[in-house]
Amino acid sequence: MGELRQLLGGRPAAAIFSWQRARKLGLDMGADAAEETLLELMARDPTLVRRPIIVVGQEMMVGFSPKGLERLLG
Predict the structure, then answer these.
(1) Among 27, 32, 38, 64, which is disulfide-ready with 22 (CB 3.0 to 4.6 Å)?
(2) Cβ contacts of residue 68 below 8 Å, gap of 6+?
(3) Do you find a cis peptide bond into 46, omega within 30 degrees of 0?
(4) CA distance 25 to 37
């Protein structure tokens, strides 16, 4: 979980959690799920981490967005 915390850099775990994948796996979780719970789930099942994750400096983009990528890479 340390790697996930480092990647998040102080951001909430929900920022990279794949809620859609969680629903497909039958995980009944509300948007107010505890931070530690989300981290534990992502550590156990990496498919629950949204991808791609692109970090440039202090900026992070999660998921694919051509416009977002263009903005991030300037």
Answers:
(1) 27
(2) 61
(3) no
(4) 15
Q: What is the DSSP letter of 50?
A: -
Superfamily of domain covering 2-73: Glutaredoxin (3.40.30.10)
The domain limits of the chain are 2-73
Q: For the segment 6-34, what is each residue's pLDDT rounded down to a tens digit?
A: 999 999 999 999 999 999 999 987 777 89
Instruction: Give the pLDDT confidence of 36-56 residue by residue, as tens digits.
Output: 999 999 999 999 999 999 999
Q: How far apart are CA 13 and CA 7, in angstroms?
A: 10
pTM summary value: 0.86
Residue indicated by tokens 């951001």: 11
Structure tokens at 70: 């263009």
